[in-house]
Amino acid sequence: MNYGFVGLGNLGAKLAATLLRGGVSVKVFDLNQEAVDKASALGAEAAPSVAAAAADVDGLITCLPSPAASEAVVAGPDGAFAHMKPGATWIEMSTLGVDDIKRLAARAAEHGLETLETPLTGGVHRAVTGDMTILAGGADDTLNAHRPALEIMSGQIVHMGPIGSASLIKVISNMLCLIDLVAAGEALSLAKAGGLDLGKAYEAIKASSGNSQEFEDWAPVILNGSLNTGFTLDLGCKDLGFVSALGRSHGVPLKLSALVEQLFIEARAKHGGSAWTPHVIKMMEDATGLELRADGFDDVIPKD
């Protein structure tokens, strides 16, 4: 199997590198030439365009920042679908809305193409070692055909069901994750205000019933001051917007996520959309004058 890969951003570059280290043949394209050059140095073939990356491959992987970007890349006037060979598979690793992936999968089918939705979860830093979890949606036989490549990029594949099901659970997972980030910031702020050593507070929470995977992964980047989760406020706002829309469409009141969405919108207005998500906690620090730092966390999570 040979693959095209479009979208070498913070996550995509790591995933493409993992595929290349696994011995997979990959053609890459990105608007950022430096990212393309880095992938080429690892053995990728540099494609001059989306069309070239999509031509004559068994699967085209896209990892892009928004539904609009995905649609432009695959279904635009000179998009990938028009250049892929019949029977090939579009593998969408971006986080899209449920309606977005269903609509674009239908467009792919008009070109004789299969679709897999494969958003990832577990923390962008785990993409370096291929330990993220893939949430898959699509036909069993399509997934099985591409499973060897997907397993190189992931520690676990959870097949959720048909197209749309993986996007739904990914948005739900991100909702929990972003709510947990805000809760971690409030917990650490209260610990600091109460005079606790934040390093000891972290260890106590990690050993308690209040612990979570997100607290373990994200509290350290608050405590070391890097605030680097590899996930931006723009992406957080996008995902929380998906959550709000899903809540309305299904008639499910999502009061807590709505409050968190407003905090993220406020943080984006203050720090910019490219700032990492823990800048929502930086707002808490600014409001209280409490700096949430502790020694011993500098190398807990790899930084870019």
Shape verdict: globular
CATH architecture of the largest domain: 3-Layer(aba) Sandwich
CATH class of the largest domain: Alpha Beta
Number of strands: 9
Poorly predicted regions: none
H and E order: EHEHEHEHEHEEEHEHHHHHH
| Secondary-structure class | alpha/beta
Separation, N- and C-terminal Cα atoms:
30 Å
Give the % helix. Answer: 40-55%
Tell me the radius of gyration: 20 Å
CATH homolog superfamily of the largest domain: NAD(P)-binding Rossmann-like Domain
> What is the overall number of helices?
12
CATH fold descriptor of the largest domain: Rossmann fold
Largest sheet: 6 strands, parallel
Overall pLDDT score:
94
Give the total of domains. Answer: 2
Going across the major beta sheet, what is the strand order?
3-2-1-4-5-6
**Into which percentage range does the β-strand content fall?**
5-15%
